[in-house]
């Protein structure tokens, strides 16, 4: 029987995970979600077949596992309102950017099992990537269950140091947005050159998907895969030289730095003390 999961704060991220879980066959009656936006409850219930409520305490009381999915600035208040219904046999999994395990533990007040995760929205289509770190109360069997759950909508990596969660956020949590932006720009360029929007979208998207699939499925060095497309003095060389001249390396490495720095700031901004 599936463990009962409560998702507290069903918005974009929790909705993606619920969609991924449901698509992988997780029982609908083993999932309950909450949000402050009661107007959206019906559509979430219809989309994912799971029950929704505005009452966090009601949802948490009946759960074995609680996913904490509100924004970082809401986390403390939401947890503090739950404290008297929290049980020590429950497992708590935060998805919030920046928020440290020690802050979550301080707000939960009891010695409970807590996991800090950093998923991403491609979880919705079974292609998520999540970074994970556990506190000292998480058992090996809980870790295995969590690995299986996150794998059911993509893949996961446990990190050794909590600091590494900032980098996880920069490389996978936020990263789908960078790639969406790259696609937006490419599609627009295709249209500028005369393709219709749908064709432009299909070409650029399939190229991105194909490149990712090659990296994933082949063991080749990525630079070799790149060189295999780049004929001397050919079309690809012209494009890549333009990207280098315009600072692609500095651009993406500074974006990654900005992302992980913001994650660190969020952790400090919303720390327990
Ligand atoms: N959107 C993304 O791609 C990712 C988001 N995250 C993390 O996920 C968390 C949520 O982000 P999003 O889903 O993007 O935000 P969102 O704004 O789409 O969802 C937050 C949800 O929380 C609900 N909420 C607010 N206050 C509440 C309360 N007191 N009780 C119950 N529900 C409440 C809101 O109604 C909303 O549905 C954040 O902590 C973020 O750092 C992590 C990885 C990726
Ligand atoms: O932008 C954010 O803060 C969240 C965390 C990772 C992706 N979205």
Automatic annotation (TrEMBL):
It catalyses: L-proline + NAD(+) = (S)-1-pyrroline-5-carboxylate + NADH + 2 H(+); L-proline + NADP(+) = (S)-1-pyrroline-5-carboxylate + NADPH + 2 H(+). It comes from Marinomonas piezotolerans. NADPH binds at residue 56. Pfam families: F420_oxidored, P5CR_dimer. InterPro entries: 6-PGluconate_DH-like_C_sf, NAD(P)-bd_dom_sf, P5C_Rdtase_cat_N, P5CR_dimer, Pyrroline-COOH_reductase. Its EC number is 1.5.1.2. Residues 162-266 form the Pyrroline-5-carboxylate reductase dimerisation domain. Catalyzes the reduction of 1-pyrroline-5-carboxylate (PCA) to L-proline. Belongs to the pyrroline-5-carboxylate reductase family. It is an enzyme of class 1 (oxidoreductase). The gene is proC. Residues 4-98 form the Pyrroline-5-carboxylate reductase catalytic N-terminal domain. Coiled coil: none annotated. NADP(+) binds at residue 35. It is found in: Cytoplasm. Keywords: Amino-acid biosynthesis, Cytoplasm, NADP, Oxidoreductase, Proline biosynthesis. One of its GO terms (cellular component) is cytoplasm. Pathway: Amino-acid biosynthesis; L-proline biosynthesis; L-proline from L-glutamate 5-semialdehyde: step 1/1. It comes from the Bacteria. GO terms for molecular function: pyrroline-5-carboxylate reductase activity. One of its GO terms (biological process) is L-proline biosynthetic process. This is Pyrroline-5-carboxylate reductase.
């Amino acid at each position: 029987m599936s463990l009962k999961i409560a998702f507290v704060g069903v918005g974009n991220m929790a909705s993606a995970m619920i969609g991924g879980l449901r698509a992988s066959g997780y029982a609908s009656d083993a999932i309950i979600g909450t949000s402050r936006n009661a107007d959206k409850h019906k559509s979430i219930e219809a989309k994912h077949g799971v029950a929704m409520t505005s009452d966090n305490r009601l949802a948490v009381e009946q759960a074995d596992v609680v996913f904490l999915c509100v924004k970082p600035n809401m986390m403390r208040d939401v947890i503090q309102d739950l404290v008297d219904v929290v049980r020590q046999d429950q497992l708590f999994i935060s998805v919030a950017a920046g928020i440290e395990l020690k802050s979550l533990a301080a707000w939960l007040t009891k010695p409970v099992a807590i996991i800090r995760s950093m998923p991403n929205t491609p979880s919705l289509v079974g292609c998520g990537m999540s970074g994970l770190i556990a506190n000292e109360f998480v058992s090996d069997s809980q870790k295995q269950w969590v690995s299986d759950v996150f794998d059911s909508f993509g893949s996961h990596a446990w990190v050794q140091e909590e600091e590494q969660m900032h980098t996880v956020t920069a490389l996978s949590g936020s990263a789908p947005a960078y790639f969406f932006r790259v696609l937006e720009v490419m599609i627009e360029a295709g249209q500028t050159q005369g393709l219709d929007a749908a064709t432009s979208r299909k070409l650029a998207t399939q190229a991105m998907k194909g490149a990712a699939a090659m990296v994933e499925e082949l063991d080749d060095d990525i630079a070799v895969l790149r060189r295999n497309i780049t004929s001397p003095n050919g079309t690809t060389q012209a494009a890549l030289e333009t990207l280098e001249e315009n600072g692609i390396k500095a651009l993406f490495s500074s974006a990654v730095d900005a992302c992980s720095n913001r994650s660190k700031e969020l952790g400090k901004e919303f720390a327990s003390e």
